[in-house]
Amino acid sequence: MDGFLNGVELRESLDLRDWERAQQRIRDWEAQGIPEVVQVDAVSLEKACRDFINDAMDRGLRDSTLKKYRVLFKQTAFYAAKQGYRFLKQWDLNALRSFRESWSDKGISALKKLERLRALFRFAH
Questions:
Q1: 74 and 31 share a domain?
Q2: pLDDT tens per residue across span 16-63
Q3: Are residues 62 and 103 in the same domain?
């Protein structure tokens, strides 16, 4: 199976040889939601941001730096909700580029914000 279900990309073997049974399993997933196997693997944007902030506090980053990360993560969460992005897997290059284009920041402020965004995705990776 290869495709999207409720905004989450799925690519896995169904371990079935019968086309009708495979179609029925997919219809069941569509009716019931994302299967448990996929939910475990998919990391939500909210969890990644929360884990990043916890790690940053453990590293002893200053409150002013943490505040800047929190502001960025609020903007990211707002944009994600507007676009329907729930999981990190959904943030491809076009999504990130579109998010960056929505910023009103210019010059060094935009550069620093981009550095913080990159830090989040490096951490999540």
A1: no
A2: 778 888 888 878 877 776 655 544 467 888 999 999 999 999 999 999
A3: yes
Say how far apart CA 111 and CA 107 lie, in whole Å. 6
Rounded-to-integer distance, Cα 125 and Cα 115, Å: 15
How many domains would you assign to the chain?
A: 2
Cβ 8 vs Cβ 14: under 8 Å? no
Q: Are residues 35 and 20 in the same domain?
A: yes
Asked if 50 and 90 sit in the same domain, the reply is: yes
Q: What are the Cα distances from residue 58, in Å, to 36, 52, 54, 62, 104? A: 31, 10, 6, 11, 31
What percent of the chain shows pLDDT beyond 70?
A: 90
Amino acid at 80: A
Range of the domain at 30: 2-41
DSSP assignment letter at 87? B
- Burial of 45-71, coded b for 16+ CB within 10 Å and e otherwise, reads beebbeebbeebeeeeeeeeeeeebee
